[in-house]
Amino acid sequence: MDREALAEFLRTRREQLQPADVGLAAGPRRRAPGLRREEVAQLALMSTDYYTRLEQQRGPQPSTQMLASLARALRLTADERDYLYRMAGHAVPDRLSSTGHVAPALQRVFDRLSDTPALVISNLGETLVQNALAAALLGDNAGASGWDRYEPYRWFVRPDVERRRYPEQDHARHSRAQVAGLRAAIGAMGSQSRAGELVAELIQRSAEFRELWDRQEVAQRFADHKVLIHPEVGAIEVDCQVLFTEDRAQALLVLTPEPRSEDEDKIRLLSVLGVQQFTASER
Predict the structure, then answer these.
(1) Which of 24, 44, 117, 178 could form a disulfide with 134 if both were Cys (CB 3.0 to 4.6 A apart)?
(2) Is the CB of residue 276 less than 8 Å from the CB of residue 136?
(3) Where in this chain does the record put each HTH cro/C1-type domain (predicted)?
(4) Highest mean pLDDT: which range of 73-82, 207-216, 246-255
(5) Domain containing 184: what range?
(6) How far apart are CA 100 and CA 142, in angstroms?
(7) CA angle, 144 as apex, 94 and 218 as ends, to 5°?
(8) How far is it, in rounded angstroms, from Cα 21 to Cα 34?
(9) Which residues are within 8 A (CB) of 130 and not within 5 positions of it... i.e. 6 or more apart?
(10) DSSP at 213
(11) Statement to judge: residues 243 and 270 lie in one domain
């Protein structure tokens, strides 16, 4: 671990960012350039004291989980993230495997979305980041661990929870889309990747998945119109707009109701109701 190089890199990247770059209000005039240490700590979900010690070359070696959070908070590119890992004394993550690092271009767009449900997912269905409305509508999946991080796993292994958010008549179509998307992911990442491990787990655990997997369907697609079920406000119809990274490894999903509709009123109500207890806590 190169403490001096790590501290200098963190400090410089922090000073190069402005509050608007990360979705924060500028507030009163600032005496120093860039973000404050407490703002980076808040974005990275760590204590200000912990982050301060890293910049002062006296902190412990950060874990890979901490580094992933810092890379996201500082809006690092893949090359910058790799440098961060090396300076912290860790192996660089495999770029062909699914990771929790959000592409900076998607993160910048995501940061500007607060009045409509929005989330960034990986090609394996991991929720990497989501705003409060997306969590209220789809469940708080960003903090899930283990196989529960992956939507295909939740869909086929925990259908009593995951499928409640979709009308029953849409279940079969959604099942096929999940499998076709996973086959596209394994084609891009290889059978020895996390995608291959996920497929092997689902083949073992779900007869429905095995049957659909044998169809050899391949597609990376999202329905442009969705009906979602919320336990408090009922059915909500939204249009789904998708923005992919160049390698299509990550996608930003933005769910918008028709303007001046009952569905728009329901989305507003979600901001008051918040996250319901039919999400990760019930898995």
Answers:
(1) 117
(2) yes
(3) 30-81
(4) 207-216
(5) 104-282
(6) 10
(7) 60
(8) 10
(9) 117, 118, 119, 120, 138, 140, 141, 142
(10) H
(11) yes
